[in-house]
Amino acid sequence: MSARHAEFLATMKGFFEGEIDAAGVESRLGKSASGTARLALYGDLVRRQRVGLLEHFFRAARLAAETLARGTWTELLAEYLRRHKPDHWEPNQFAAPMVAFLEQRVADGMLPSFVFELADYAWIRYAASLAPHGDIVALGADVVVREYDHDVAAYAREAEVVGACPRDAPARATTVLLVCRSRVSGKLSAIRPSVAALLALGEHATGIATRALPAGISADDVLAESRALVTLGVLPRPRDVAP
Amino acid sequence: MISAEVSGVGIGLRREVQDAVLATDRRIDWLEIISENFMALTGRPRDVLSRCAARWPIVPHGVAASVGSGPRDGYVEALTELVVRLDAPFFSDHLCYSSLGGHELFDLLPLPFSAEAAEFAGAQAKSLAAAVGRPLLLENISYYAEMPGAEMPEHAFIECVLDISGASLLLDVNNVYVNARNHGQEPDAALLALPLERTRQIHLAGHVAEGDVLLDTHSRPIADEVWALYRLTLARTGPVPTLIEWDQGIPSLDAILDEADRARQIMKEVCG
Q: Which of A166, B75, B121, B238 could hold B71 in an S-S bridge, CB 3.0 to 4.6 Å?
């Protein structure tokens, strides 16, 4: 690489990282025939791409944050962009640290939990869509079970509607969700599993039958849920466990 | 896996229309994928790709090779795996830089039209094609500002890079139009100045006006002026595989296929 080309790239790096403005670029590299304003446009365009990616990925979390106070999401994004730079060519990987970022905000008392929960729900759906299917379900990978304090699935469904602008935050309701990519249809599913279904899932993953069933739940109940999960495409086959 | 030569008019296999593509019985000649959406990925992207590749030729079109600054670690290997898995007859990316200092910009940034930039980008592109083992097509990007240090016009810069790299041209006709309007040129003249004889694929897309600038957003139907430039292109190049690009505000699959049908009709009218 020639020194001149290296200087061009280094200068533009400084521009995109906010160290210099368009006039600063021109002072180092010479004038743009298109004018300083046109050069400056690129800083805005690059920022728009990063913001747009995150807003598209976390649409429901954004809408929920905006019900708190106007500008909440913008402030969160500005802080996130200051702390994180995209370092992978797969754009969705730029969204990966956002969940932990929001979780910390909740832990610091700066954000209600539903914003984090909606972001987490978006992320596990994305991760489940990518996870390969093995002979045994990999809990936490191709099948994810989460307990949320809010009805994130319903809110996320509403947020998918183009132009949706909900006035209220997600309803507070303890919700257990099972998220997976169906082995039958290939599509993402978010199921509210029964206790028996969760036991069936655990038995499949461990290969060990539940020793002490909760009151009101029989082994037949668990087996029936196991078969239902196969029909839904969550499990590859019915229970096959050691006693 | 289909490994047919790519011809006719294709569309982009964007996530929003994947299910509709697999369900449609309307004519689709080939598909283009954004390489980075399928590189080193498993699960649903891989499943969808396999199902589509069984029915149509697929061409990987990347946005992160960054020939103007050099690719990221691991990128070439992941891209090669994808191209080989698809048995693609060629692959493409852009004549630009898209990452700096280990960070992605998620945009296609223009290089200065200089001999040094051409030398670097051309060498990077040549190396990339050799590593992947398939012919590379480089796309002419839209640029809203000419970078400082320009020594030659855009068409000469493109030709220089193609000479050094041995790559072919992926001619984005909308970008030709957008650039001509943004920089005070006549679109026909700007088109005819390009090395059209090196065109191996064409992109058609929509743009929007923002203030005094046309932005290449891929978010609208193809403008009448761009259709006219497409006719002029085909009159010079003959029939070239053409892709309808629609990446934002994606409408129904039928709306995209209507654009594809129009392109096919024009190709038939011009080329016979």
A: B75
